[in-house]
Design a protein that fits this description.
heterodimer, A: alpha/beta, Rossmann fold, 8 helices, 10 strands, globular, B: mainly alpha, two-stranded antiparallel sheet, 2 strands, 76% helix
């Protein structure tokens, strides 16, 4: 397992949002985490990225215990998250956003080369490079957010609700991009409420309900009944 | 003729105010805190220059080479020791702490230097130069030039360097800053360092320009706040515009209005700006 989450418990104040959650992502896999709104999915990614401490349990990456690592340390290891709601730097230009994403590569040639690569991979980006990211549409911002994440050459890409708030057309485009990323062998962990995106993208899935894993398995084996129970009961 | 004098003096004062405020603006943008101790910290820089002049006859202009990094260290330490532990709590708490710090500094300065007005002369003291037919103290012009250089350097660094981008990114979206690996706490500490260090750069020269009394701190903090609000609190350009407007208000006010009503002008300007465009100003103050 590249990412190994063991019996993770975390929360805010007295409330435990995640309860003894265990999951794993092997190198090259694309794994989904499904669940309703308050199931704790975003909290899970926050803990993996170091934005929130774990109360109990461990997070292991490539064999190393990163439970106490700083957010910066996790980025240095290649754990890159594309957060919910995109969170591009609105006052910065698209190019500056990408440059910030590439901080892990330093400030020199490596980053510039990667930037050129990203511009080639994502043709819609070069014409937008001097535009302030805050002026872009939701779909465009999502593209910038994903490209920004890729600038860091991630060893695992964590995506928090990539389709949230996007029009159906934009969702299709984002899905295309994510499929391409998956097909290059990048390890991915995807949080999604949109089950269809998960089915198209991921091979395995976990279903979270009220902070606990209630079902896990291959995507095609996750029956409609189990999903309905997880979301609606 | 008087009007030209007012304009020239206004520009000189305005740029100086802009530099002083740029530190406060930076701190506000990146860490979200209004530094009410800003003026008092500048007072420390000025009184330090006074001491160096009094005991070792060091010219304040030279002293600023040492005082600027010292003040930067003070700013850094202030962030780590005082601000970081409390800033996640009620935002009024940070304001109270900084106001309290301002009073503590005032009391310490009073104990050490007494209540008399002081000044620290530098190599240009007492000399005058004529600009557009207006006589200005050379010291003021030096402060003006230093401020101009400082503002330009800051502006360029913020716009074109990675350091500046990291600062702007942290100011724009802290969560995303963490997620791209920006060392957010370090960036914030550096911001306080630069924001206060700037005071150490221009403060020693101002020891011969501004009246130095132990209670000057709060007065200048408020004035800087006025410049910040009028300028929008977001961009360097805004800070410069705000500084110039306040500079004009003060100098033209002092020239044309009776008594010391002129000193009220910056605040009257603030009132006018808030009355005429409160939505824009408040929207800028509270983020996007």
């Amino acid at each position: 397992m590249l990412l190994d989450v063991q019996e993770l418990t975390a929360g805010y104040g007295k409330v435990a949002v995640l309860r003894e959650v265990s999951l794993g992502v092997a190198a090259g896999e694309c794994v989904a985490v499904l669940g309703a709104n308050n199931a704790g999915k975003s909290t899970l990614l926050k803990v993996i990225s170091g934005l929130m401490p774990a109360r109990r349990g461990k997070v292991l990456f490539d064999g190393a215990d990163i439970t106490a690592d700083s957010p910066r340390g996790r980025v240095a290891r290649g754990i890159i998250q594309i957060p919910e709601g995109r969170h591009v730097f609105p006052d910065l230009t698209v190019e500056e956003n990408l440059l910030m994403g590439g901080l892990r590569l330093g400030a020199g040639k490596r980053r510039r080369t990667k930037l050129a690569e990203i511009y080639e991979t994502f043709p819609p980006l070069p014409p937008m490079r001097t535009r302030q990211a805050g002026t872009l549409s939701g779909g465009e911002q999502q593209l910038v957010a994903i490209a920004r994440g890729l600038m860091a050459v991630p060893r695992i890409l964590l995506l928090d609700e990539p389709s949230l708030g996007l029009s159906p057309v934009a969702i299709d485009r984002v899905l295309e991009v994510l499929l391409t990323i998956r097909d290059t062998g990048t390890t991915m962990l995807v949080i999604e409420q949109n089950a269809q995106v998960c089915f198209d993208l991921c091979s395995r899935g976990y279903v979270l309900r009220r902070g606990q894993v209630v079902t896990a398995g291959k995507m095609e084996k996750l029956s409609t009944e189990e999903l309905k129970r997880a979301y609606f009961s | 003729m008087l009007f030209v004098a007012g304009i020239v003096q206004g520009i000189v004062l305005g740029i100086i105010l802009a530099l002083v405020t740029s530190g406060m603006t930076l701190i506000y943008r990146v860490t979200g805190i209004i530094n009410f101790a800003h003026g008092s910290l500048m007072a420390i820089a000025m009184y330090l220059a006074f001491d160096l002049k009094r005991y070792w006859n060091v010219d304040p202009l030279l002293a600023s080479l040492a005082i600027a990094p010292l003040m930067a260290a003070v700013g850094w330490a202030l962030f780590w020791g005082l601000i970081r532990p409390i800033r996640r709590q009620h935002h009024l708490l940070t304001i109270q702490v900084l106001l309290g710090l301002s009073f503590v500094i005032e009391a310490l300065l009073l104990m050490r230097y007494g209540a008399d007005m002081r000044s620290a002369e530098n190599i240009f003291s007492g000399k005058f130069v004529t600009v557009l037919g207006v006589g200005i103290e050379v010291t003021r012009v030096v402060a003006f030039l230093l401020s101009l250089i400082g503002l330009t350097a800051l502006g360029i660094a913020l716009r074109y360097s990675d350091w500046g981008r990291r600062l702007r990114a942290t100011a724009a979206d802290e969560l995303a800053a963490y997620l791209v690996g920006i060392p957010v706490l370090r960036v914030e500490a550096w911001t306080w360092g630069v924001g206060i260090g700037v005071l150490g750069l221009v403060g020693p020269v101002l020891a011969d320009v501004f009246k130095m009394t132990p209670d000057m701190g709060l007065r200048y903090a408020i004035l800087a706040l006025v410049v910040l609000i009028i300028g929008g609190g977001r961009t360097m350009a805004g800070t410069i515009v705000g500084g110039l407007l306040v500079g004009f208000a003060e100098t033209l006010g002092l020239l044309y209005l009776p008594g010391s009503y002129g000193g009220l002008m910056p605040y009257a300007l603030l009132a006018a700006v808030l009355l005429l465009n409160p939505a824009a100003v408040l929207a800028k103050m509270h983020g996007r």
